[in-house]
Design a protein that fits this description.
Blueprint (H helix, E strand, L loop, with lengths): L3 E2 L6 E2 L2 H10 L10 H4 L17 H19 L14 H17 L5 H7 L6 H12 L5 E6 L2 E7 L2 E6 L9 H12 L3 E6 L4 H8 L1
Parallel strand pairs: 5-6
Antiparallel strand pairs: 1-2, 3-4, 4-5
Length: 207
Amino acid sequence: MTTLTCTFCSKICKNKNSYRNHERTCKLNPDRTLTWLMLNKQSLQPWNKGLSKEKDVRLAKQAEQISKTLKEKHKNGFRTLAQTAEYWTPERRKQKSLWKKELHKSNPELHPNRLLAKNKTKMTYPERVAFDWLTNKKYVFEYQKPIDNFFVDFCIGNIVIEIDGERWHPLNNEKDKQRDITLNKLGFKVFRIRSKEKIEKRLQEIF
């Protein structure tokens, strides 16, 4: 089978049609033919691309109008189906909860914590401090590591570091206690650092 390679950029094409069309419009072709889309690319760009209501008066007015309309609708009792108490019956809530648990069990990579872990810019400030400290000290660690049914903030060998925010992890939280007991049974030593503590100092003490 003959390999169809562009004379100008050496790109391998699938068939004769794609080969002919690619060479005709190839960026390295001195006699390049510009298609209608290429010629009108600039004019086809959406007018609001890269803008926000803080930067553009038109978007600000549009956002204000949408907000005003929705508020007026809600004042008159309008709700979408998914926003109504009739839709979210106790049975439906339970069914949704079980579905999510099964989904995360069979696809742990879809768990919100796992998705969050892929984006380091979404860390809380205390987590970022801990992440940077461990990185600078050359510790080999995993962020948001899945262990059993949990995702721990930082795992270094058999040591687990949890950064506890005041809102989601109040002191003497029973749920956290049970979680620590389970992790201890699995052979992990758990250290909890309150977000208001001096993170670097506590890490220094632990290690």
